[in-house]
Specification:
By secondary structure, the protein is α/β, with parallel strands linked by helices. Helices cover about 40% and strands about 15% of the residues. The structure holds pyridoxal-5'-phosphate.
Length: about 375
């Protein structure tokens, strides 16, 4: 049985626009007279330059490198994985949609956890998949996707894909690489694990980045690298799966500005690492403060904390009280986790009094 969408099990479709940079690499020289791709290369961009600078104006004029050669080269070196196991796209969300488009037919079953990062459900439904949700494992100070239940459901429903965010959003829970090994071993052979690692960079440095059979890892520059507004992320997967993803990807989805920005932050990893260190310290401080008030705060391996309230009504009331003061925190839209509140571990969350409405409820 095929593990990808049935209409892709043939030659093609072939991307008609591999792009100028790819052509230059193939020819081994630069093409200095670009008369062939109808971009607005002669737009003076006075207003844009005045506002955002010459570099932004220069990058804005041309399509980005559809092969993201510079970013993938850096990632290959960093993780010691083959170039053709890497695909750069417009963020982890975009990669998630691409993975679903690659793997699923209309009606394919896909499995996820009830209340996890809701974009998966949104995209799966939009793709015509049959979504099956399994409950989280939940104990005091512990909230985690249930890996055995995910695998059981994959067998029971003959699923094409299982989605797991690791570390998870909104619980913050991290399953170890050994746990993921076991999950992979327990999945049906034709079922792909979409392993959303948007928060990977907040894991300890030795976290695994290897290419795994049957797994599409999704990563992003939105979190630890602070490039959410530019939309860029990457997938790590076996070259055969990456090749299938290329058949259905929007080839110029990643802007030239996003590509250049990602290269710059990858070249300045010390700044990223300092930032991660600071975020982790803030996250632990926030968790400790709320636990000291009796809050049920599971361990988080991300840039946020989750806190479980007694029930969804209490959580909604706290969220509303904070919103009335202009403070936005997140409450998952899924009823299964409506009693959870999620708070980003930014400096502002630690300002005394900022979360007063939450603190009052905890000490009541
Ligand atoms: C688990 C998870 N996956 C993906 C994303 C989206 O990442 P991107 O901005 O790269 O699309 C988020 C953002 O909150 C997330 O929490």
């Amino acid at each position: 049985m095929s593990s990808t969408a049935s209409h892709l099990n043939r030659e093609g479709p072939f991307n008609p626009f591999p792009g100028l940079r790819a052509l230059e690499r193939r020819l081994g020289r630069e093409l200095s007279h670009q008369l062939g791709s109808n971009e607005g290369l002669d737009m003076p961009h006075q207003a844009l330059k005045a506002r955002l600078g010459d570099d932004v104006a220069r990058l804005a004029r041309g399509y980005g490198d559809a092969e993201a050669f510079g970013v993938r080269t850096r990632l290959r070196q960093r993780f010691d994985i083959p170039m053709d196991a890497l695909l750069v796209d417009a963020g982890a969300d975009s990669l998630m949609a691409l993975a679903l488009r690659t793997l699923c037919d209309v009606g394919s079953a896909v499995i996820t956890s009830a209340g996890t990062y809701p974009t998966f459900r949104y995209f799966a439904e939009g793709q015509g998949c049959r979504l099956v949700e399994v409950p989280y494992l939940s104990e005091a100070q512990y909230l985690a996707p249930d890996l055995d239940a995910l695998a059981d459901a994959a067998h029971h429903h003959h699923a094409r894909a299982v989605y797991l965010a690791n570390p998870d959003n909104p619980s913050g829970h991290l399953h170890s690489d050994a746990d993921i090994d076991t999950l992979c071993a327990n999945l049906p052979a034709d079922c792909t694990l979409i392993l959303d690692e948007a928060y990977h960079d907040f894991r300890p440095q030795n976290a695994e980045s290897r290419v795994r059979d049957g797994v599409i890892r999704l990563r992003t520059f939105s979190k630890a690298h602070g490039l959410a507004g530019l939309r860029i992320g990457y997938a790590i997967a076996p070259p055969g799966i990456i090749a299938m993803m290329h058949k259905v990807r929007i080839h110029y989805a990643v802007s030239s500005l996003a590509l250049e920005a990602a290269e710059i932050v990858l070249d300045h990893d010390e700044e990223v690492q300092t930032h991660i260190h600071d975020v982790v310290a803030r996250r632990e401080q926030l968790a400790a403060q709320l636990r000291a008030l009796g809050g049920d705060v599971p361990n988080s391996a991300t840039n946020f904390i989750a806190i479980r309230m007694n029930d969804a009504d209490t959580a909604a009331a706290v969220q509303k009280a904070l919103l009335d003061e202009g403070v936005l925190i997140h409450r998952p839209p899924h009823p299964a986790l409506g009693h959870v509140l999620r708070i980003s571990a930014v400096e502002d969350a630690l300002v005394p009094g900022r979360l007063a409405a939450l603190e009052r409820t905890l000490t009541r």
